[in-house]
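As noted in the main text, all predictions were made from sequence alone. Below is one such record, for VWFA domain-containing protein.
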Amino acid sequence: MLKDADRKVIWKILAASVGVFILVYLVIVPPSEMTLESIIEDVDVNQVKHPMGHIEFLPPDLNNTLPDISKYPPQVEKITSNYIEIFSSPEKAGSGTDGWLTEVAEDFNNAGIKIDGKPVSVRLRAIPSGLGADYITSGKYMPEAYTPSNDFWGEMIISKGVDAELVEGRLVGNVAGILLTKSKKDELERKYGAINTKTIVDAVANQELAIGYTNPLASSTGLNFLISTLYAFDKSDLLSDKAVAGFESFQANIPLVAYTTLQMRDAAKSGFLEGFVLEYQTYLNDPDIRHYNFTPFGVRHDNPIYAIGELSGEESRILNEFVKFSQQEKYQNLAAKYGFNGFEEYQSEAVLVSDGVIIQAQKVWKDRKDTGRHNCAVFVVDVSGSMEGRPLNNLKRSLIDGQYYIGENNLIGLVSYSNDVNIDLPISKFDLKQRASFVGAVDELQAGGGTATFDAIAVAMKMLIDQKAAGPDKDPNLKPRIFVLSDGETNKGHSLNDIRDIVEDLGIPIYTIGYNANIKALNAISNINEAASINADTEDVIYKLSQLFNAEL
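Prediction:
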């Protein structure tokens, strides 16, 4: 027989065990069982009305949105008073296997080359081809020479009135390519024969291939792919009704146009894509993607070099000496070691276009890339106390200036949050009235309180789901997007762990834009569905947002 004291001990043990079980169940199990609806039930959501704001009809001047050139410090600095500056695409003016032109420039500067008895040198600055073109066409910063990845950028700046002259059509060889999984490549070869741009275009249009490419307003490979696609539909006129209609049917089946190459590669590695586009030199130097099959397409990326503006006789001679120096066998062998000069037998698949056709092709892409489907985005804005002052002022400027790059056919909403969540602007077509309401709501944002970031994201997801399912604008083909503008800190409401599975299951990309931010925390949000994260410093955030919104909205 158990004594009363023994019974009390046993009951205490049982009670403690039950307590531990309940504690484990409450703490560990519920997050995995949380639904979007159960999270929303815990959130205080307020509908807030704002007066319309005043909008201008012209976007910010490009000169004012570009960062100061010091944002891109020289990769190689001049060592003499007589010199020229060269803008170069980063894949050849970086470091390591991306440092071919860097090594050429360093050796050139150390070679003791003289012109008219005076020592000369070069300054080399690594800048993406599209960004370099923007500096030059805006006049904000003019180098003496410019070497983008391919000829399209040179033709573009010339068509915009820049005094640019081709000095050398090829510094070093490279090609753009379509990367396909082996199984998909074999499947397409059985049906279509050889893999080329036309094969890819037809397979995408027939919903047989899920492929991604990079933003053609900024990426050399993305621009090449756009031009090649239009060319595949009409070789005689890239801007004909036939070419544009063909592009629309093709683009309707493209799941991803990536803001960055990294974003696109992450999507491919996750199994989301069966193919994507990339330069051969980058492909060759990345073992993580070598299991894809590479097929060259479009025009070659032979890294031409242009003289910019009216160079003096001395500047022209320095540039010519540098080009000649780079063509020595020693440096061309080094280029091959670093992955360049491959696919030498490949000839450009499409003709080089000029006379403003490239600019018009980019406009076709911007205007027609979402024909037949609507992008729907909710901007989620942090107005907690930690955003007070400069961070919130910069955020408001970002949205007011950035809205010029959002097309009117998009559906846009606005949510702000601190301790609780405000719906400042319900989702609606971004026409003149909605645009003015957006600006008015942003103007009235004020900081204070805690930071319930994930409550606000949950509300935004619910808004997107409701928009897709019901109402006069319901659209089963809606492309949902969330843009979170924050410093990245969270101290109220639900956690990332509470909503991670929900975000992943819904597949809604969440782009994050950080202001004086915990970038690591914001990256964790964006990485769930391979979206981009921007560190929005005060100087170039508008330019960054223009590139992001052009790609996504």
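The CA atoms of residues 309 and 457 lie 49 Å apart. The first helix runs from residue 4 to 33. These features were considered when defining construct boundaries for the mutagenesis experiments described in Section 2.9.
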